[in-house]
Design a protein that fits this description.
451 residues, mainly alpha, elongated, disordered N terminus
Length: 451
């Protein structure tokens, strides 16, 4: 949308057009009003805006409020306030002039149409400046009503007007409470598409407006199509690439089936790789997002390559969760030994991370290494017990029972019972350990007696 200084320069031209159309109107000014307008012109030529406005106001007080003279005086008064740089003061006189013109047939239709266009712009400026959201929404609604009229009346669609109309509708639709108004947003999208047909090379902000409409409507796939046009138009703009990837990810999230979701995820991957060739989306977060998308479509081999290289080269943040993800990726493709090596390396980098010891123990058990698993469970307990200490104690108790370390199994079970989540299973394991101890003691007693 144009900046308001530009709008005002355009607005003065519209008012000049309206003023020129007065001569063709069926009504005529009174001699007194015509004489005073001559005085207004002299003051305006000297840029004495207040003096010119004073003459208008004095004359308005003397004429019939419904007269042609009033309509002209109000219209020129609005023009003077624009010239003065007080657009907010132009709204009421311009609105009243248009009201009189519509009611009595004053001015030519083309002049009234252009006055409606200018008034819509002024109403919207006031809406944006309003401190009360409800008042702002009401002014925006007034501006939309005026632009609906303009669209219906203008003989030939004009790009600036159609674009402005679309912007108004988007503002109203996206700002609606408690949620965006889809009906208004769809109307905005119609105007955007109309605007796209009016210029050979549409401006970047028109594409952005279309993207915004589509995203508000949850139509991510269509937003991505428009963003593809934007990155082709301006591949050096990093924000376009970020939006494009986000649109493809959004389309994947709302896809109707797995095949379609995979297609959009692959496009997101390609978009990131294209952006990186342009020098964008190279942050650690961006690289991790790329890995995440590979992970989502179960391309674990590629995720492993990117993640391991990133951790080694420092392009992926050296965080525990990233090492855990790398290990998990190895497990997903059956490479348990490499998963174990990854976790052990992580444990050296993060020596106080008890949870890593627990994960190593779980993997050791999967690989049928219970003795090694017990060692890491003990280390986990020494470091604080990890995220769920009761699980660690229960696991240790279970493995200790298997290894016939009944005293350790009983102690671990008793410790698990200190947590509400471990009470029931801990009690069962503790009883099992005590039964095993009792049976072993009885066996030893019997053996000694037999000797």
């Amino acid at each position: 949308m144009k900046s308001f200084p530009t709008i005002f320069r355009h607005a003065l031209g519209l008012l000049a057009l309206a003023t020129a159309a007065l001569a063709a109107a069926p009504a005529q000014l009174s001699d007194d009003t015509a004489e005073d307008l001559g005085k207004v012109k002299a003051q305006a030529d000297a840029q004495n805006w207040d003096a010119a406005g004073g003459i208008i106001d004095t004359r308005l007080a003397k004429v019939d409020a419904e007269s042609y003279d009033a309509a002209v005086l109000l219209q020129i008064g609005a023009q003077l306030r624009l010239q003065k740089g007080a657009p907010g003061e132009s709204v009421k006189p311009l609105a009243r002039s248009l009201e009189l013109a519509d009611k009595h047939g004053y001015f030519e239709p083309v002049a009234r149409t252009q006055m409606a266009y200018l008034l819509a712009q002024l109403e919207f400026q006031d809406a944006m400046a309003a401190k009360d959201p409800e008042a702002g929404a009401a002014r925006t609604a007034d501006a939309i009503r005026l632009m609906d009229r303009w669209s219906a009346e203008v003989p030939k669609a004009q790009f600036d007007g159609v674009f402005f109309h679309a912007s108004l509708l988007y503002t109203a639709g996206s700002g609606a409470k408690p949620k965006p108004d889809e009906a208004i947003l769809k109307k905005a999208l119609v105007q955007v598409d109309n605007a796209l047909l009016l210029v050979v090379r549409p401006p970047e902000n028109l594409y952005q407006l279309k993207v915004a409409c589509l995203q508000q409507l949850g139509r991510s796939a269509e937003a991505a199509e428009t963003l593809e046009q934007l990155v082709e138009l301006k591949p050096t703009e990093s924000a376009h690439w970020t939006q494009l990837v986000g649109a493809y990810v959004g389309a994947a999230a709302t896809a109707k089936d797995a095949k379609e979701a995979t297609m959009y995820n692959v496009r997101a991957i390609l978009a990131i790789e294209r952006a990186q060739k342009q020098g964008f989306m190279t942050t650690s977060k961006d690289r991790f997002n790329l890995i995440g998308i590979h992970f989502n479509i179960q391309q674990f081999d590629r995720a492993i390559t990117l993640l391991s290289e990133g951790l080694k080269q420092g392009t992926i943040e050296n965080e525990r969760k990233n090492w855990e993800l790398l290990a998990y990726s190895y497990q997903q493709i059956g490479r348990d030994a490499e998963a174990l090596k990854t976790l052990e390396e992580a444990a050296k980098i993060f020596p106080q991370a008890a949870q890593l010891e627990y994960q190593i123990a779980l993997l050791q058990q999967t690989m049928d290494r219970p003795a090694e698993a017990i060692i890491h469970l003990r280390r986990c307990i020494e470091k604080g017990g990890g995220d769920t200490p009761h699980s660690v104690y229960l696991f240790l108790s279970y493995l200790a029972l298997e290894q016939k370390a009944f005293e350790e199994a009983r102690t671990a079970a008793a410790n698990a019972m200190k947590y509400p989540e471990g009470m029931k299973e801990g009690e069962r394991l503790k009883k099992a350990a005590e039964d095993m101890l009792a049976a072993r003691n009885l066996s030893e007693t019997s053996r000694r007696n037999s000797l």
